[in-house]
Amino acid sequence: MAVRRVVCERKALKGLIRVSLTIVGDVIEEAKITGDFFLYPEDALWLLEEKLKGVRADVDSIRRVLEETFRDLNITTAGCSVEDFVLAMKCALEGV
């Protein structure tokens, strides 16, 4: 089964979002999200990464997981939105 590692950086209004994905076949095996942004609650970033494991590596599936997780955990950010994270993931998937 093919293994791909993709990375993308996206500038949000206030901060940089860097996404690193390991994709096996068409499923995300590992997701790392780093950058100079702020999320609350503090463990939200780790939880986002965990929720992405096992998700199909397509924008619609990723968007659904991110939107649900932001809503369910009541995640707040300063200067970036769930859409910025979705666009960073899309950028990584497309190799842009």
Sheet of most strands: 3 strands, antiparallel
CATH top-level class: Alpha Beta
Q: Helices and strands, in N-to-C order?
A: EEEEHHEH
Output the structural class: alpha+beta
Helical content (DSSP H or I, runs of 4+) = 25-40%
Q: Looking at CATH, which topology would you report?
A: Enolase-like, domain 1
Gyration radius from CA atoms, angstroms:
12 Å
* Morphology call: globular
Low-confidence stretches: none
As laid out across the biggest beta sheet, the strand order is 1-2-3
Q: How many extended strands?
A: 5
Share in β-strands: 25-35%
Q: Give the number of domains.
A: 1
Averaged pLDDT: 93
Distance between the termini: 23 Å
Count of DSSP H/I helices: 3
- CATH H-level name... which superfamily? CO dehydrogenase flavoprotein, C-terminal domain
CATH hierarchy: architecture: 2-Layer Sandwich
List its traits.
Enolase-like, domain 1; 5 strands; two-stranded antiparallel sheet; single chain; 96 residues; 3-stranded antiparallel sheet; alpha+beta
Secondary-structure blueprint of this entry?
Elements (H helix, E strand, L loop, with lengths): L2 E10 L2 E10 L2 E9 L3 E2 L3 H9 L6 H14 L3 E2 L4 H13 L2
Antiparallel strand pairs: 1-2, 2-3, 4-5
